[in-house]
Structure formats: C-alpha cells, structure tokens
Design goal:
mainly alpha; two-stranded antiparallel sheet
Amino acid sequence: GFFLSKVGNMRLTILGTMICTVGFFAILAFHSTEPMISVTLLIISFGLSFSIVGAFNVVLMSSPPQIAGISLGMTVLLALVGNSIGPSLAGMYQQMNQDIIPGMTASFPTAQAYNEIFLTASIISVLSVMLAIFLKRSSDKRDLTPSDPVTKINN
C-alpha cells in the first residue's frame, strides 16, 4: 500500500516485471544448490507480487466503474489461463528431455530440461518488461483530461 502510493501503478508493474526478469535469469544461471534456488525464487516472488498488484490496479483504474467487476473477472480468467500454460510448457520440456539414471528403472528430467524451462521463463519475462514499458509510453502519449480514470495510471 505505502510503496504503491509512492511509486504508482504502472511504475510498480514495470518494476515488478524487471525484478522477475532478474530473478529468472538468476535462476537460469544459479540453480545448482537448494539455497541458490531459494534466493532466486524469493526474488521472483517479490517481482511477481509487485507486477500482479500493479497490473490489477491498472485494469481497475482504467475501467469505468460500471464494468469494473467484469474487467477484474476477465483479468483473473486470463491470469488463470496463463498460470496453466506455464506448467504445461514445463511438463513438455521435462518429458522431451529425460534420461535414465544407472541403477534406477525410471527416467528423470535432465538438467537441459530445467535450463530450457528457466530460459523460456526469462524470455517471457523480458517480453513482459517490454510490453509494460510500451503500455506506459503509450499511456503517456495520450492527451487525457484530468477527469479521465486512465490518468490515474500514470502516477
């Protein structure tokens, strides 16, 4: 709440996606031990919390009050669809890159599978940063009146 009021919705979304990007590249580079994974997941979770709160507020502030519930409902629906695509992609990478460990009867995902998962997440995160910056710039270029709810996004 306090941080959001100081930074603003769009800046918080951009900051969150940038933190996520740093976290995903960090987990791509440093995933050999459990403490390294824990630290990088902590970074990613901070970024996700900032970007999700900021993005939801942007949607809420840019929607007319009469359809704010519909706008938030659609946002939640799209978030749930996105949350199901990620594990599906990860499962595909893990299934495509398996190896048998000597002495075991089952096959397991290789390190390559996890590298591909983390690289894909990093690329998607970079695209999210670019999209957030593009949205910020396009909202800055609009000539809006002060009574327009979209002007509240630029805080």
